[in-house]
Amino acid sequence: MTDIIEQESCDVAIIGAGPSGLSAATMLKKSGIQRIVVLEREAEAGGIPRHCGHPPFGIREYQRVLTGPAYAKKLVETAQSTGVNISLKTTVTMLGSGGELSIVSPAGLRKLTAKRVLLATGIRETPRSARLVSGNRALGICTTGALQSMVYLKNRIPFRRPVVVGTEIVSFSALLTCRDASFQPVAMLEEKLRPSVRWPIYELTRWFGVPLYLQTEIVNILGNERVEAVQVSDKNGKVRDIACDGVLFTGQYTPESNLARISHLTLDPETNSPDVDEFGRCSDPVYYAAGNVVQPPCNQAKVPIYYVAGNLPNPVDNAGQCWSQGRAAAKNIVKDLAGNLPFS
Ligand SMILES: Cc1cc2nc3c(=O)[nH]c(=O)nc-3n(C[C@H](O)[C@H](O)[C@H](O)COP(=O)(O)OP(=O)(O)OC[C@H]3O[C@@H](n4cnc5c(N)ncnc54)[C@H](O)[C@@H]3O)c2cc1C
Questions:
Q1: Domain ends where: 229, 249, 269?
Q2: 53: closest CA among 142, 166, 176, 172?
Q3: Are 97 and 132 contained in the same domain?
Q4: Fewer CB near the last or first residue (10 Å), C or N of the chain?
Q5: Interstrand relation of 108-119 and 123-125 (parallel, antiparallel or unpaired)
Q6: In a mutational test of the pocket of ligand 1, which residue from 14, 20, 26, 48 has the highest number of ligand atoms less than 8 Å from its CB?
Q7: Domain end: 249, 278, 305, which one?
């Protein structure tokens, strides 16, 4: 086992180098906070947009239409140009009281104590395991995020004829990824009566020649080494097989709040996000949270126009909104460090 090698301190530690973490870091630095560190578990900074190989990103932030990777690069360059230190391949594994973080990096284990900590760890899609779909653990099962990371960052293709599960906006982004990688899904499944997105977005299925099956649920995945088929059940309970070589689970977002869950921080029981006040401050006032790790309850979320009312998935903010939330949290942290933030 590696020894704990260092005990460090800083003014603000930011966990996650996505749009919210990077915009917060830039704002803090510009506001004169000196000792800031951004801790990012991936080998590159930029968060989810790094592997969204499509526009539009950056309109609010840079008044330009950028692809996800170009936007991520710009966010990183902007932060670094102000002198922000981004520590890559660095995972925070524990949040302690008083801002003491446990960290694992290639250099080993270490502790870092920050006067303030910002959680900016984002969201993720619900994977197969958490959806309780039965069947073997065959090769060829992933989420949109994993697919996009394979296609756009690693030049790999996990399947050629997948079934796509879900009809959220990200499900159609998954179809575009399949098209970019030159392969064709064999079906798109939606449990509900209607797709989650409005017309004409769901017409993409027709344009791409992908059959859309409504009121159809995946019940079993068949295949030993690789996926060979899925069993689906329709509204009458009739079960049939669809031959395929992969299953792409899309959407059903959930906050990436595991760190908060195993810590002393209070979670919102409805959303599983860290509980925050109007300043973005958590139940331990040393900690703040911003970006998509903080999800509003469904009934308070602003509904994007592309979703069908009554058929809403879990709320999710886009990159520009998360970027703004990071800046807002940073401004509150600056006030707080100066002793100018009231208790709520
Ligand atoms: C599959 C998918 C596709 C999406 N597509 C779009 C899109 O096309 N357009 C759009 O506007 N939005 C999209 N989104 C929404 C996306 O969440 C936001 O655009 C934006 O990236 C959120 O910013 P964030 O900073 O809150 O989190 P993220 O961008 O998710 O960044 C969080 C960062 O925290 C890091 N992290 C997490 N835990 C730890 C830890 N313990 N230690 C260290 N680092 C950690 C992660 O590695 C990540 O880099 C998509 C989301 C998903 C999941």
A1: 249
A2: 176
A3: no
A4: N
A5: unpaired
A6: 48
A7: 249
Structure tokens at 184: 């064709």
pLDDT, tens digit (0-9, with 9 covering 90-100), for 77-109: 999 999 999 999 999 999 999 999 999 999 999
Residues lining ligand 1, judged by CB closer than 6 Å? 15-21, 39-42, 47-49, 52, 91-92, 120-125, 144-145, 170, 173, 256, 259, 291-292, 316, 318-319, 322
The answer to the question of residue 342 being in a domain is no
Query: Do residues 134 and 234 both lie within one domain?
Result: yes
The answer to whether 276 and 288 are in contact (CB under 8 A) is yes
Q: 317: which 2 tokens?
A: 């903010």
Q: To the nearest whole number, what is the mean pLDDT of the chain?
A: 93
Burial of 87 (0-12, 13-18, 19+ CB in 10 A): middle
48 CA from centroid of ligand 1 (Å): 4
* Token code pair at residue 334: 């600056």
Q: Which domain holds residue 24?
A: 4-124+253-337
Span 244-301, pLDDT tens digits: 999 999 999 999 999 999 999 999 998 999 999 999 999 999 999 999 999 877 767 7
Q: Do 230 and 257 fall into the same domain? A: no
Task: Give CA separation, 143 vs 18, 120, 186, 293, 307, in Å.
Answer: 19, 21, 16, 18, 20
DSSP code at position 107: T
Q: What is the domain-level CATH number for residue 216?
A: 3.50.50.60
C-alpha 65 – ligand 1 centre gap (Å): 19
What is the number of domains present in the chain?
2
pLDDT tens readout for residues 66-82: 999 999 999 999 999 99
Phi, psi dihedrals of residue 94, rounded to the nearest 5° = -155, 140
Distance 81 CA to ligand 1 centre (A): 22
